[in-house]
From TrEMBL, chain A:
<feature type="transmembrane region" description="Helical">
    <location>
        <begin position="292"/>
        <end position="311"/>
    </location>
</feature>
<comment type="function">
    <text>Involved in transport of proteins into the mitochondrion.</text>
</comment>
<dbReference type="Pfam" id="PF17172">
    <property type="entry name" value="GST_N_4"/>
</dbReference>
<keyword id="KW-0812">Transmembrane</keyword>
<feature type="compositionally biased region" description="Low complexity">
    <location>
        <begin position="244"/>
        <end position="270"/>
    </location>
</feature>
<dbReference type="InterPro" id="IPR036282">
    <property type="entry name" value="Glutathione-S-Trfase_C_sf"/>
</dbReference>
<keyword id="KW-0496">Mitochondrion</keyword>
<dbReference type="InterPro" id="IPR033468">
    <property type="entry name" value="Metaxin_GST"/>
</dbReference>
<keyword id="KW-1000">Mitochondrion outer membrane</keyword>
Automatic annotation (TrEMBL), chain B:
<keyword id="KW-0934">Plastid</keyword>
<dbReference type="InterPro" id="IPR034746">
    <property type="entry name" value="POTRA"/>
</dbReference>
<dbReference type="InterPro" id="IPR010827">
    <property type="entry name" value="BamA/TamA_POTRA"/>
</dbReference>
<feature type="region of interest" description="Disordered">
    <location>
        <begin position="1"/>
        <end position="74"/>
    </location>
</feature>
<dbReference type="Pfam" id="PF01103">
    <property type="entry name" value="Omp85"/>
</dbReference>
<feature type="domain" description="POTRA">
    <location>
        <begin position="89"/>
        <end position="167"/>
    </location>
</feature>
<comment type="similarity">
    <text>Belongs to the SAM50/omp85 family.</text>
</comment>
<keyword id="KW-0812">Transmembrane</keyword>
<keyword id="KW-0472">Membrane</keyword>
Length: 328, 538
């Protein structure tokens, strides 16, 4: 009577972050897993946790008392492979190119996505994906914490910010080029068969195209490769949109505040480039001047207080020694 | 040499007898512990309430003995008059001395009573109350109130002179143990207090508390007796709290918040709390329900407590009754993403003395319910930390405030459970269960306490008791209320009986009990046997 579990033990549930930007889940860590399960035609329910943006356990797959967390055993995909639940990569492990591309996507492209979401753009996309269901003060503090943590991870300091940015974008460009060459006209990256490589890359591409703002440098670099765009759109239609229109057992709902659909016809390969460099210089100068101004104000106030101020209000005591008489 | 006493009555009789004297020496109760009890009349001037204004007069040179005798006579005559009837007098002025740091208005706010007195008797009583109130501010080492005659041209008046000595050492520290009934555990707390930093009677304190069930709290608080004309004192407390429930429910709770005591009187208490609360699971073993609850939440709630405690003693009640009702409404910010819930609990106690061996029967009934509100509330789960958990090793007889524990059941030891995550590491052992608590809780207890027939035990206050209790928790949220029925709830009541020895020490009350579990369910953590419970009065 007291047991609270009510689901069948065979049914798997993927717990991911909330859907946004017309994607079933807009978080770049969760979307690859969703796509992987879809590519494998693995039946699952989708459930959301939108109050724990800084957890590395999410996304996770659960079924009864079995749980595969993302921060264990190299990730959920690896764990599902090990436990024999889903495995698309059985023949690719020994292919050196496959392994190298996997490493490139998990390092260079992952870093580029992290940089662009938190540092490169104005952070609005990240706030929508991660903090839209949290109260404002909590969301704001967590956002600032995350920006700091990303800068630490990517080794960005005040001195090397520009160089690091150049390096990250350059690597992303190289990676896109290599993947575009690898993809060619095929439907999938390797042997025309889906693998976790496709899932990871596709997740990255879809978030870049749909979630990042149009002024994003990373997005503009990606838009230069038409075959990647075509590949992404085709698979998105097959895996995501066709399944959401069918009567799948999915329990998510697209929020009413999602942005309007951006199809390929709306994209231009020459996005508005933000004049970022000059802005930074001007901003820096302005900030410096503002700091001097504030410091001067503070100094003036302190001087005033120390020179002009001085005596506190005395508490005048009625000190009548002769108790018998009070008022003469 | 004219004796002031024999001057014809040109002034109303009572004013002539005005003598400055200390309220401290007249009182019968033991209210003024730290005060000096000088009889002042000897050294004070006799007032010039004769018909002729006399200027700052010193008594005519009389011998000390003669002065003492005359003073004593005057005092006795005044007391005689007071015995026969009210001696009308009103307060003309209140003079405050000795406060170098404390602002006058803080002291004056406590002395408002004095303005309304009409007679000497009332004046004495009011002075005692003012004395106690000023001492209760905790910022003075001593408070002395002296009553003196008013100005000679205003007969029938008195002046009240309040002399305070501010604390020499504003910093004080203490280590104390107490049991928080809501938290169901006992804590040891070390605190530092700084008194009267700004002269507004403000008490600042910082404290570090460690609870028995691995909870740690670091907090800083402020107590203001008078804040911008508010009637009751205002308290504010900023805290960092960390509670470890991994063993019982596979989660850890961290909160950072601010609580404001808005109104506090003998029976009513209103407090507002705003906090950022995070639930995490570092063990990664949580059950499905707990996994869904992990994350950050903004808690903004108003709590109203109504308390009536007419028992003769909270540690060993033998007569009287008590009733506590606590209502907490969460989600007071317009943001619909904050935690929205309504929590109500009550506790009713009744003690009947039986007349022999100081025996008493204690009955107690308590219950509580919690429910989320807002859109789709019936299908939403209630928040895990707000639910009711029964069990723990605090004494149910003393813990007043809501359904907390049953004898014999361990912390969070009964109620709905869910199996934890199973890790495939080769062993087939189940990982255990998480206790999820419930939305509806109920407990009832009956306890017969009596002295033992040995004198040594009686002297130490050690007595015995026989007890029985029953309780249950049930889930109502996520549409479970549709399956709820009172009959099922009553059928699944857990219960226990037992007998034990109660040892009250100066710090806490300890019970050594033998509990027999009459009814429990499979996963409940309860065992028949000997158990220790503690309770320390806050």
């Amino acid at each position: 009577m007291e047991q609270a579990g009510e689901r069948e033990s065979e049914e798997f549930t993927l717990v991911a972050r909330k859907p946004y930007f017309d994607l079933p889940t807009a978080c770049p860590a969760c979307l690859p897993l969703f796509i992987y399960l879809k590519l494998a035609h693995f039946p699952f329910r989708l459930s959301f946790n939108s109050i724990f943006p800084d957890s590395d356990q999410i996304p996770y797959v659960e079924s009864g008392t079995y749980v595969a967390y993302n921060n264990e055993n190299g990730g959920v995909i690896e764990r599902l492979k090990q436990d024999g639940i889903v495995d698309l990569d059985s023949e690719f492990h020994s292919v050196p190119d496959w392994v190298a591309m996997k490493a490139m996507i998990s390092s260079w492209l992952a870093d580029a996505m992290m940089y662009e979401l938190w540092v490169g753009s104005d952070g609005k996309s990240a706030c929508k994906i991660y903090y839209s269901d949290l109260s404002w003060p909590i969301g704001k503090v967590l956002f600032l914490k995350q920006v700091y943590s990303v800068k630490q991870r990517l080794g960005i300091t005040k001195g090397n910010a520009e160089q690091r940015e150049d390096e990250i974008y350059k690597r992303a460009k190289i990676a896109y080029g290599a993947l575009s060459t690898r993809l060619g006209d095929q439907n999938f990256l390797f042997d025309d068969r889906p693998s976790s490589l496709d899932a990871t890359f596709l997740g990255h591409v879809l978030v870049t195209l749909h979630a990042l703002p149009e002024t994003s440098v990373l997005r503009s670099k990606l838009l230069g490769h038409n075959n990647i765009i075509r590949y992404a759109e085709k698979l998105k239609m097959e895996l995501i949109e066709s399944s959401s229109s069918s009567s799948g057992p999915q329990i998510h709902s697209v929020p009413s505040s999602s942005t309007p659909k951006r199809g390929p016809s709306n994209w231009s390969s020459k996005p508005k480039s933000k004049p970022k460099r000059e802005k930074t210089e001007e901003e820096k100068k302005f900030k410096r001047r503002a700091k001097y101004f504030l410091a001067a104000q503070l100094l003036a106030v302190l001087l005033f207080l120390s020179v002009m101020g001085g005596s506190d209000a005395d508490d005048m005591e009625l000190d009548d020694e002769d108790e018998g008489l009070v008022y003469g | 040499m004219s004796n002031p006493d024999s001057v014809p009555d040109l002034t109303p009789p009572d004013s002539e007898r005005q003598k400055p004297f200390d309220t401290n020496e007249i009182d019968d109760e033991d209210g003024n512990d730290g005060d000096e009890n000088d009889v002042e009349d000897d050294d004070e001037d006799e007032d010039g309430n004769d018909g002729v204004f006399r200027g700052p007069n010193r008594p005519k040179p009389q011998s000390r003995e003669a002065r003492f005798r005359s003073g004593k006579l005057k005092m006795e005559s005044l007391l005689q008059r007071m015995k026969t009837g009210p001696v009308s007098v009103r307060v003309h002025d209140v003079i405050i001395k000795g406060n170098t740091k404390t602002k006058d208005h803080i002291i004056e706010a406590e002395t408002e009573l004095l303005n309304n007195v009409g007679s000497m008797q009332e004046l004495l009583k009011a002075s005692q109350i003012v004395n106690l109130r000023l001492q209760a501010l905790e910022i003075f080492d001593s408070v002395k109130i002296t009553l003196d005659s008013g100005p000679p041209e205003l007969p029938g008046t008195a002046n009240v002179i309040i002399e305070v000595v501010e604390t020499a050492n504003p910093l004080s520290g203490q280590i104390a143990a107490f049991t928080k009934a809501e938290a169901r555990y006992s804590t040891v707390e070390g605190s530092l207090k700084y008194k009267n930093l700004f002269g507004y009677g403000d008490l600042w304190d910082g404290s570090l508390a460690y609870g028995y069930d691995h909870s740690t709290e670091l907090s800083a608080g402020l107590y203001l007796p008078r804040f911008k004309g508010l009637v009751t004192p205002v308290t504010a407390r900023a805290y960092l709290l960390s509670q470890d429930w991994l063993k019982f429910s596979s989660y850890k709770e961290q909160s950072m918040g601010l609580s404001l005591g808005l109104f506090s009187s003998e029976h009513h208490d209103v407090a507002y709390n705003i906090a950022w609360r995070t639930l995490t699971d570092p063990s990664q073993m949580a059950s499905r329900f707990v996994r869904r609850q992990l994350g950050h939440n903004l808690l903004s709630s108003l709590k109203y407590t109504f308390k009536v405690d007419r028992r003769n003693s909270p540690m060993r009640p033998t007569r009287g009754y008590a009733f506590v009702s606590t209502t907490q409404l969460g989600g007071l910010v317009p943001d619909n993403r904050s935690l929205r819930f309504l929590r109500q609990e009550f506790d009713l106690r009744y003690a009947v003395p039986l007349g022999f061996y100081r025996a008493a029967l204690n009955f107690g009934v308590s219950g509580g319910v919690v429910f989320p509100w807002g859109n789709g509330f019936s299908s939403k789960p209630s928040s895990l930390p707000e639910r009711f958990f029964l069990g723990g090793n605090i004494s149910p007889v003393c813990a007043l405030g809501g359904p907390t524990t049953l004898w014999g059941f361990k912390t969070r030891g009964l109620g709905p459970t869910e199996p934890r995550r199973h890790v495939n590491d080769g062993t087939a052992d189940p990982s255990g269960v998480d206790f999820l608590g419930g939305d509806l809780a109920f407990t009832a207890l009956a306890d017969l306490s009596f002295d033992l027939p040995f004198r040594w035990f009686r002297e130490k206050g050690i007595h015995a008791h026989v007890f029985a209790c029953a309780g249950n928790v049930a889930k109502l949220t996520e549409n479970e209320y549709r399956n709820f029925s009172v009959q099922k709830f009553v059928e699944s009541l857990r219960s226990s009986v037992g007998v034990g020895l109660v040892v009250p020490t100066s710090f806490f009350r300890m019970e050594l009990n033998y509990c027999y579990i009459v009814k429990k369910f499979d996963h409940d953590r309860a065992k028949t046997g000997v158990r220790l419970t503690f309770f320390a009065a806050p």
